[in-house]
Amino acid sequence: MKELGVVTAILTSQLMDVIVNTLSKAAMKKGMNNFVFVMYSNAFAASSLFLFTFIFCRKRTLPPLSYNILAQLCVIGLFSCSNQLLKYFGIAYTSPTLASAMSDLIPAFTFILAIIFRMEKLDWKAYSSWAKSIGTFVSIAGALIMSLFKGQAVINNYQPFKSFHGKRFVSVQYEWVLGAVFLVASSFLLSVNFILVKRILREYPSEPVVVLIRLTLTSILSVPAALISEKDLKALRLGFNMELIAIGCSAIFVLSFGGVIYTWAIGKTGPVYVAMFNPLEIIFAVILGTIFLGDSLYVGSVIGAGIVVIGFYAVLWGKTQEKVDEESTVCSSELHNNEATLLLK
C-alpha cells in the first residue's frame, strides 16, 4: 500500500510536468523569455511553499543546518537553475515530446552516478546486474538516435520557432540537434540532483525545508540572467496571459509541491527507483503535444524512443530481479539460522 502511494504520487507529478512543458512551449511561441520564466516560477514556488513548510516543520525537531549541508544545497540550487534553463531552451528549439523522450535518459544517468557514489552495487555473476548495465547503454544509444537522426515526419505539423525577434539564424536541423543537446544536459543535471538530494536527506531529513531552500537559491541565481537578457525592464511585468498561466502552474504543481513529492520519494525509495518512472512521461507528452501544440512526430524520435523504452524495461527488470534475489537471500539466511538454533537445542 505504501509503495502504491509512492507510485501514484510520482505519476501525478510527471503528468503535471508534461502539462507545464506544453504550456511553456505555447508561451514561448508568444515570446516568453526563458530566464524570466525561471526567475518568476521559482520565486512564486518558494513563496507558496514557505507557509506550508512553516506549518509542517514547526513542531518537528530538526538538526542544525551545517556548513556542509548548506554548501550541498547551494550546489543543488545552481544545478537546478541550470537544469531548468537548459530544459526550456531545449523545448524552445524542439518540442515537449522530445523533452519527455530525453527524460528517459535520467534512469541511465542516475544508475551510473549511483554506482559511482556507491548507492548501487554490481554483481557480474547476477543476471540483474547485466540487465541494468546493458539497459543503461541501450537507453543512451536510443537518446543519441533521437538527438542526431530526425528523419521523415510521421505527423507533420511543424511551425518554425521564432527566436531573437523572429530572425532565424540556424537551420531547422541544427536547432533540433542543439535543442536535443540542451535536453540531454538537463537530464544529466537532474540525475546529479537526485543523488545529491539523497545524500542531504541522510543528514537533514526534512523534504519541505530542502525544497524551499533550493527554490529560493534558484530564484536568486536566475535574477542576474533575467535582468541581462531583458534590456527593457517593462518586459518583466506580468499580465494575465499564457505566460502567467505557465508560470503559476510551474510554481505550484511542479516546483513546489511536485518538488516535495519527488524529494520525499527519493528519501523513501532511492534515486534510481524514482528516476525509472521518467520514461512514462513520453506517453503524456505525445498526446498533449500533438493535440494542443500541433507538434510533429519524426521517425528518428519514434525509433529512438522505442530503443530507450527497451533499455528502460531492462533496467526495471534488473532492479526487480535484484530485489527478489535479496529477499531470497534473506529468507535462506533466516532458515539456516533457525535450523542451527534447533540443532543446538
UniProtKB/TrEMBL annotation:
Keywords: Membrane, Transmembrane, Transmembrane helix
InterPro entries registered for this protein in UniProt: EamA_dom (IPR000620), EmrE-like (IPR037185), WAT1-related (IPR030184)
Membrane topology note: Multi-pass membrane protein
Subcellular localization: Membrane
Record-annotated EamA domain positions: 9-147, 178-316
Keyword Membrane listed: yes
GO cellular component, one term: membrane
Transmembrane segments: 36-57, 69-86, 98-117, 129-149, 176-197, 209-229, 244-265, 272-292, 298-316
Matching SUPFAM superfamilies: Multidrug resistance efflux transporter EmrE (SSF103481)
GO molecular function list: transmembrane transporter activity
PANTHER family assigned: WAT1-RELATED PROTEIN
Family: Belongs to the drug/metabolite transporter (DMT) superfamily. Plant drug/metabolite exporter (P-DME) (TC 2.A.7.4) family.
The name this protein goes by in its record: WAT1-related protein
Provenance organism: Phaseolus coccineus (Scarlet runner bean)
